[in-house]
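User: Before I run my own analysis I want an independent prediction to cross-check against. Here's the chain; please return only the structure tokens and, at the end, one sentence I can use as a sanity check.
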Amino acid sequence: MKLSAPKNNIWWIAVILGVLGILGTFMSIPIVSANAFWFVAVAFILLALATYFKGM
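Assistant: Structure tokens:
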């Protein structure tokens, strides 16, 4: 299995989702706070998929 680094766009999207999820745990953000776990989970899955598939 050959892994590759994710593109900058995907990396930034994952970072933003992860930060929103973490902030949603500690602060009250209308949509994010109720789904904070899923924001972080999607960010992690997005990074894993971008590492696995070349060109993503």
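Sanity check: The first helix runs from residue 8 to 26.
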